């Protein structure tokens, strides 16, 4: 009874102090006279990725209840009333943390520790002080993470920045001319962080591809761009809030998530090798996502490679993989919105949609046709409600999201993570414009792929390319960022490439399919929480939803969690949610609700195996056995059948054959009984038992 009373008291206390550990986003819209959607979106998105509990306020009176305030908009001279300026100053003086960007109001210069600034529109780089930034954020510990390109040297002007003249502030990051770009100042008991950049320019601008070629690589690189700001914000939160709790960015107890996707956009893929990939993955407890091109037209790109292959799609689905759309016609000018217009999503159907690419230009291709008809065909083939889309060549049409929305898609994967300068999902903007509305479609960008623009991947060099994938995956894993892999299932050696990556994944990497990660991310964003620490080091994490609604892949990171006595998670009804705990980083803890199976090590073949995906069927049979197998190289192959005494009954084949898929059967009539087969591929041998009824 006493325990129950204590618990109730504790919950009551939590009710009183519930706002104490949140970040306030203070939107100054009512003072600045316009709705600053772009900066507001960018800061709200940063909070979502950082996974910190936050609330958005339009009144400072509400915002100052929390220990950290971030103001998304530029504070122009004279826009904030004197009372607000005074309140901000005393808030910081009394221990508050204030995060500002592009400050122009000189009455706030003293709390920011600066005396002046100069404006510029030609800055190209942000160069961090590694030691100081690493002190702010655990994640910012590598040179690639603190040397950020913001504008390519080929542009004379980029976006506007302000470099500040420090008085008492220290500089965390500089522009390339050594002027101060990101500063920090202690004022009284509090701190002010000042960014000489607008949030929209380092977050939203990248997402809608309006950046000034800020990416160092288009794909297959490690590029943190916008993620720098998310990590820094989480770092500030963890630095000043004792035992800070934030939402983890990878599923459950994993360190990072690998999402394997395949683009099935050629005859060889859909007719054959897709099946090899999907079987291989199925046997190894891996679920992945197949983006299928339903190319039913004959044009200069390809002949019809859809009609007649519907069963293959069903077989991939039956191996628990996800099926998504990779368009109908896969045209290279899909991103040209003059040639490929939106079209009418209500009217278009398979029977009246006749896309054609003549070798130079698309004819009768529309966004609605591509997203709607491919969805209809995949539904007919395998009874799948398609939710995800990827454009051919990642050619991003500015009307794509509108088409996807009207056809009830949920996810889009038409961006390269390097190009949009983030590894994390984000809510897309319609018409690829910073000022347009947000869409309901979640964008999940691709990180690594088998498309290498210069020095293409081949049978001779693929292990070198896999080494690049491994290095990106490793760096992402240290940041708990997701890695989306794109492999075209059109060559058998690509299975070996995939396998090699999987074998060398960093510890505790979860392999999950695309839409499952998307659903996790959506639930992660919508699940809010608060936390409270009692004087005797007991932590309560209070969820805003009931346990039934909790996505059990969600997990929490607790700064210095190892030193806590006890951790409790309560749902919205005050019920205890059972959880597990794990040491995380040096002294932190991960609180999670479901276990991930990290075991993908039981491979059916290894890198040195020359024979893959072989099967002998039917077994038992009434005489004839079919041998189906794939070779990863040209080889001498012999197949022999033996009886129980070891006598050769039939030599089914013995000759040199080419790499690829093969199929052969015995011809001799066999009597009832048990037989053995031996498949020799050069010097490797594979044995098995078959039965004749
Ligand atoms: Zn493709």
Structural write-up:
This protein is α/β, with parallel strands linked by helices and about 700 residues long. It has 4 domains: about 20-210 and about 225-240, 3-Layer(aba) Sandwich (Rossmann fold), CATH 3.40.50.880; about 255-505, Glycoside hydrolase/deacetylase (TIM Barrel); about 525-590, no CATH class; about 610-690, Macroglobulin (MG2) domain (Immunoglobulin-like, Sandwich), CATH 2.60.40.1930. Helices cover about 25% and strands about 25% of the residues. Strands 2-1-3-4-11-10-9-6-7 form a 9-stranded mixed β-sheet, with helices on both faces. Helix 3 (about 35-50) crosses helix 11. Residues about 1-20 have low confidence and may be disordered. The structure holds zinc ion (ZN).
How confident is the prediction overall: mean pLDDT? 92
> How far do the termini sit from each other?
70 Å
Cα shape: elongated
Strand content: 25-35%
- Structural category is alpha/beta
Briefly note the CATH topology name of the largest domain. Answer: TIM Barrel
Name of the CATH architecture of the largest domain = Alpha-Beta Barrel
Number of strands: 37
* Cofactors and ligands: zinc ion
Number of domains: 4
CATH superfamily of the largest domain: Glycoside hydrolase/deacetylase
Q: What's the Cα radius of gyration?
A: 29 Å
Helix content: 25-40%
Low-confidence stretches: 1-19
* Total count of helical runs of at least 4 residues: 19
Strand line-up in the sheet with most strands: 2-1-3-4-11-10-9-6-7
CATH class term of the largest domain: Alpha Beta
Largest sheet: 9 strands, mixed
């Amino acid at each position: 009874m006493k325990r129950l009373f204590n618990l109730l008291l504790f919950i009551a206390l939590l009710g009183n102090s519930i706002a104490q550990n949140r970040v306030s986003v203070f939107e100054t819209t009512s003072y600045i006279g316009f709705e600053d959607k772009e900066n507001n979106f960018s800061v709200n998105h940063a909070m979502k990725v950082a996974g910190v509990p936050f609330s958005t306020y339009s009144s400072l009176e509400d915002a100052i209840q929390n220990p950290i305030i971030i103001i998304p908009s530029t504070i122009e001279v004279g826009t904030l009333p004197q009372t607000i300026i005074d309140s901000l100053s005393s808030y910081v003086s009394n221990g508050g943390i204030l995060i500002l960007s592009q400050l122009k109001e000189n009455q706030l210069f003293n709390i920011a520790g600066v005396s002046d600034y100069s404006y510029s529109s030609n800055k190209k780089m942000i160069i961090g002080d590694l030691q100081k930034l690493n002190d702010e954020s655990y994640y910012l510990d590598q040179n690639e993470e603190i040397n950020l390109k913001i504008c390519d040297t080929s542009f004379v002007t980029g976006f506007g920045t302000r470099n500040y003249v420090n008085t008492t502030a220290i500089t965390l990051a500089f522009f390339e001319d050594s002027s101060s770009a990101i500063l920090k100042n202690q004022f009284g008991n509090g701190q002010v962080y000042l960014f000489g950049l607008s949030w929209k320019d380092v977050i939203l601008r990248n997402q809608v591809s309006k950046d000034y070629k800020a990416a160092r690589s288009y794909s297959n690189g490690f590029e943190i761009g916008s993620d720098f700001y998310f990590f820094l914000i989480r770092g500030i939160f963890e630095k000043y809030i004792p035992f800070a709790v934030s939402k983890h960015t990878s599923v459950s107890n994993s360190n990072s998530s690998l999402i394997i996707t395949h683009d099935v956009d050629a005859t060889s893929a859909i007719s054959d090798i897709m099946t090899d990939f999907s079987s291989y993955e199925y046997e190894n407890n891996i679920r992945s996502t197949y983006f299928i091109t339903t190319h039913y037209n004959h044009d200069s790109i390809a002949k019809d490679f859809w009609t007649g292959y519907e069963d293959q799609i069903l077989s991939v689905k039956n191996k628990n993989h996800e099926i998504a759309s990779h368009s109908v016609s896969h045209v290279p000018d899909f991103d040209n919105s003059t040639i490929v217009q939106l079209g009418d999503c209500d009217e278009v159907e398979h029977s009246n949609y006749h896309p054609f690419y003549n070798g130079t230009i698309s004819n009768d291709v529309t966004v609605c046709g591509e997203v709607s008809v491919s969805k209809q065909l995949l539904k007919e083939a395998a009874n799948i409600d398609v939710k995800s889309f990827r454009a051919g060549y990642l050619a991003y049409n500015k009307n794509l999201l509108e088409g996807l929305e009207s056809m009830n898609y949920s996810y889009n994967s038409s961006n390269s993570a390097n190009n949009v300068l983030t590894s994390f999902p984000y809510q897309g903007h319609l018409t690829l414009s910073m000022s347009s509305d947000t869409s309901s479609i979640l964008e999940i960008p691709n990180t690594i792929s088998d498309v290498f623009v210069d020095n293409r991947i081949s049978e001779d060099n693929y292990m070198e390319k896999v080494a690049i994938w491994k290095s990106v995956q490793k760096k992402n894993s240290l940041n708990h960022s997701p890695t989306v892999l794109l492999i075209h299932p059109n060559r058998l050696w690509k299975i070996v490439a995939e396998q090699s990556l999987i074998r060398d994944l960093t510890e505790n990497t979860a392999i999950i399919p695309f839409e499952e990660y998307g659903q996790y991310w959506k639930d992660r964003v919508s699940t809010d929480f608060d936390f409270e620490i009692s004087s005797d080091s007991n932590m309560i994490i209070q969820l805003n939803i009931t346990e039934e609604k909790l996505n059990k892949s969600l997990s929490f990171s607790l700064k210095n969690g190892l030193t806590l006595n006890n951790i409790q998670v309560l749902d919205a009804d005050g019920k205890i949610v059972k959880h597990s705990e794990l040491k995380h980083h040096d002294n932190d803890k991960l609180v999670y609700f479901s276990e991930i199976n990290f075991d993908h090590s039981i491979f059916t073949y290894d890198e040195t195996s020359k024979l893959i995906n072989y099967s002998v069927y039917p077994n038992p049979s009434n005489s004839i056995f079919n041998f189906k197998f794939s070779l990863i190289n040209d080889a001498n192959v012999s197949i022999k059948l033996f009886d129980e005494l070891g006598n050769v009954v039939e030599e089914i084949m013995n000759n040199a054959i080419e790499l690829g898929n093969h199929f052969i059967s015995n011809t001799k009539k066999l009597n009832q009984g048990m037989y053995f087969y031996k498949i020799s591929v050069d010097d490797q041998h594979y044995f098995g038992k078959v039965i004749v009824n």
